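Progress report, Aim 2. The chain analyzed during this reporting quarter is listed below.
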Amino acid sequence: MAAKKLIGKMHLWLGLSSGLVVFILGLTGCLYSFIEEIKPLVYRDRMFVEVPAAAKRLPLDVLRANAQIAVGENHPVQVAEVNLGANRTVSFRALKVNPEAILYSRYMEYYYRIYVNPYTGKVVKVENTKWEFFQMVVTLHVSLMLGPKVGGQIVTWSVVIFVILLISGIILWWPKNKAAAKQRFSFKWKDTTQWKRKNYDLHNILGFYAMILLLVVSFTGLIWCFEWLNKSVQWMANGGKSMEQPAPVFSDTTNTNAFAPDKILQAAVQQDPHANTLFISIPKDNKSAVFVFGRKDKKPLYTNTRSQYDQHTARLLSTTSFATMNNGEKAHALNYDLHVGSVLGLPGKILVFFASLIAASLPLTGFYIWWGRKNKKTAKAKPKQSTPARKKLVIENVKV
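Predicted structure tokens for the chain:
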């Protein structure tokens, strides 16, 4: 009992110290799970176009040039996102960060997405992604709208504390006997059940059912935060063998042909015919390879293909798919999908959504439990004050 009391104190103070961050992470995690599904609904005007009769797409290089003019030469375009759907725009990204900045406003120096009609070449929208709603949701989730140097550390250690809270919470939840267990697995509410009891049950019962999923979400998040943990997981998945970094590949600088994005796009479509969206990097110099990320829409990220091409000739330099990865690489590739639940498709995302909602509620219900107990103790400690009428009666009795 003494150990459990000590765990209870630790659970209380760790919860109070990290509660606000956990609340933010849980709430933003709910939205984060469904960003890909929500965006096409709210941004139809910039993500979709009317397909003209006898439609013919313009060269990718022409679209890139138009995007660059729209955003200005001071903001070089770095990535082209080509959705192969006939009614989808092609978007380009330009961004620059300052890793040393503390505030997000200075960390993200600029971030633009330029949406271009693939048939007319007209710029549909220049989005200031730095302050776009969903980008701020992601930034709140990973760094609390601060730079990763400070905000990332606060989030990291708050998640570590949250893992300790989950483990200590299950110890405190564990029933003493069978009679107590009946109240720990389901809500036994009556019309006369007070709100304090209901709040206590919401904290304990919901926390119990969400614990395993929240541990998975927390652990996969920490893998991004700690490089040693990431390497350890891959090391274990490989049966105790260290990971070997693949040798970098470069474009043939003796070739005088200019960067050929359309040839690379064509080669990537042939290489990965099942991909719906292709992310193509824009090389900074004449020796860099072009990275192409082939994504299958509505499929988990681990199913995607990663390839590198010669920027001058569009020759395939390397390619990696989930099937060709070793166990360590597969564990790393699965991490994001485990974190957001997409490894199980839509049902998995729904589970993570509700688990994140429960995570956001735990600091609130936990605080109310503490506040209620604190006020109860204060009320008990207060001495009873005699009323004037009682004082008068006592004096009269003494006189008699």
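Residues 346-381 form the longest helix (36 residues). The radius of gyration is 29 Å. These observations will guide the mutagenesis work planned for the next reporting period.
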